Amino acid sequence: QDGLKQCLAEFRQQLTWVERLDVTLGPVTDPAAQSASTSDAVDPENDFQREMSFYRQAQAAVLDALPRLRKLQVPTRRPDDYFAEMAKSDQQMQKIRHKLKSKQEAMERSEKAKQLRAMRKYGKKVQVEVLQRRQKEKKNMLNAVKKYQKGLSDKLDFLEEEQTSSQGNKKGNANQRTKKGPNAKRRYKNQKFGFGGKKKGSKWNTKESFNDVSSFQAKVAHNKGPRKGGKGGKKALNKRPGKRARQKMKNRAR
Questions:
Q1: How far apart are CA 204 and CA 219, in angstroms?
Q2: Under 8 Å CB-to-CB from 76, ≥6 apart: which residues?
Q3: Is position 207 within any domain?
Q4: How far does the chain reach from its first CA to its final CA, in angstroms?
Q5: Which residues contact 68 (CB under 8 A, 6 or more apart)?
């Protein structure tokens, strides 16, 4: 014991506290522990209690050392322009940035692919619904036509619905055409030649013309009336000349 004390006296240096910065204190007392009147002994096998005691001891040292350092005018905060070298090199950090960027791009691509798949599923669903609706409308119309043909119904509402749907599909284009109107060339031709009117189906019979029999003459229709043009009548006028007569006509023309 005497030898140890002698060695301690030989290497001991009488330095100020600011050169040593040693703080020896116990942990900060926990008010909850005091109220619960628990013992200060820490179980070394309990990791949580052991680490908590270290934390409270460091907290007590900070609370004791900070006022002393401020009293000695020793700065305790790091300046804003403080530069410290990174533990990893710039090349390693660049690799990490590239890896993070590639991971983020992969996540974005995956998200876009998910959105595209969802949109395709929704588009297919809408298409199937439209096809089902059209088939249902077609089936209803065919049933209505069959009922009308068999005389079970005298309603023609299905025709009006079909015309309404077709007009609704062409409404946008028709509105655009009416708004724009014909161009200058078309207007000039309309002014010069007129519109011409409807030509297709102009010679078709209508209900009125079919029922109108006022101009019908049975004698003329059955060749029983008086013939014009002598003995042969109309037949004689339209009779084709013989072969010899046709040959003479060709010789005269030459």
A1: 25
A2: 66, 69, 70
A3: no
A4: 165
A5: 17
- According to the per-residue pLDDT averaged within each range, which of 68-72, 183-187, 227-231 is highest? 68-72
- List Cβ neighbours of 44 (8 Å cut-off, separation of 6 or more): 50
Q: Which of the residue ranges 18-27, 86-95, 100-109, 147-156 has the most confident prediction, judged by mean pLDDT?
A: 100-109
Most confident of the ranges 140-144, 154-158, 237-241? 140-144
Residue 36 has pLDDT above 80, yes or no: no
The answer to whether residue 214 is domain-embedded is: no
Tell me what the mean pLDDT of segment 162-191 comes to: 66
Which residue has tokens 């200060």? 40
Domain count of the chain? Answer: 1
Cα–Cα distance between 112 and 109 in angstroms, integer?
5
Task: Tell me if 50 sits within 8 A of 42, measured CB to CB.
Answer: yes
DSSP at 201: T
* Cα–Cα distance measured from residue 159 to residue 144, given in angstroms and rounded to the nearest whole number: 10
> What local confidence, expressed as pLDDT, does residue 38 receive?
47
Distance (Å, rounded) from C-alpha 123 to C-alpha 230? 81
Structural domain that includes position 66 = 1-33+40-72
Domain contains 103: no
pLDDT at 168: 58
* Overall average pLDDT of the 162-175 stretch: 58
Q: Does a structural domain hold residue 219?
A: no
